[in-house]
Design brief:
With about 200 residues, the chain is mainly alpha-helical. The chain has helices at about 5-25, 30-35, 40-45, 50-70, 80-95, 95-110, 115-140, 150-170, 180-190. It is elongated, with a radius of gyration of 19 Å.
């Protein structure tokens, strides 16, 4: 059951995300976030001390969602099917152009802001390692090319999806799900996965 605290925090985060998508992290102000959330500054500051804290929470949430998607296929014994499911889930997630814009903003901010650099790198490391572990498991089961470096392969797969997310942010009409068959084929050929 969602608490009032969680509801209010979600309201503020959604309002901030809308502002950041429209104007970027640096151009958006706490006053704009308050107006978007339809809350007084005192109410917003009760939950978040600064705009930077809101940005950090949004980035943490986004990274945690990706990790959750990877973990959702962890117990799938059919490697090819697991990567198919993961591809569908991630492409469905990036159907939202606003989410793609926020991810680009977060990566740009991580280049300039040491606190954001630490958050993005830490979460990225966790996500890459989780995906690499999925690849290692497939390799150990004889269902994936054993000569591939699992971590480097994970980086390539993430880069593929992030590249499509950038394309989506530039062209909101782009149907990411329409790319699923091609991406699944690319991944299957790259990893040389096969059905268990």
């Amino acid at each position: 059951m969602t608490t009032i605290l969680e509801t209010r925090q979600r309201q503020i985060l959604e309002a901030a995300a809308s502002c950041f998508v429209r104007r970027g992290f640096h151009q958006s102000t706490m006053q704009e976030i308050c107006r978007e959330a339809k809350l007084s500054p005192g109410s917003v500051y009760r939950y978040y001390r600064s705009k930077e804290e809101i940005i950090a929470v949004l980035v943490e949430d986004s990274c945690a969602e990706f990790l959750s998607l990877i973990q959702s296929v962890r117990n799938d014994t059919d490697t090819a099917q697991a990567f198919d499911h993961l591809t569908d889930a991630v492409l469905d997630k990036i159907r939202d152009p606003a989410l793609c814009v926020l991810n680009i903003e977060a990566n740009a901010e991580a280049i300039r802001n040491p606190r954001m650099t630490e958050i993005v790198k830490r979460r990225d490391t966790v996500n890459l390692e989780a995906l690499a572990e999925q690849i290692r498991h497939a390799q150990a089961s004889g269902l994936c090319d054993p000569t591939l470096d699992a971590l480097m392969s994970a980086e390539i797969l993430v880069a593929l999806i992030k590249g499509l997310a950038i394309r989506k942010s530039l062209n909101p009409e782009l149907d990411t799900m329409a790319h699923a068959p091609i991406i699944k084929t690319l991944i299957a050929r790259f990893l040389q996965t096969r059905r268990s």
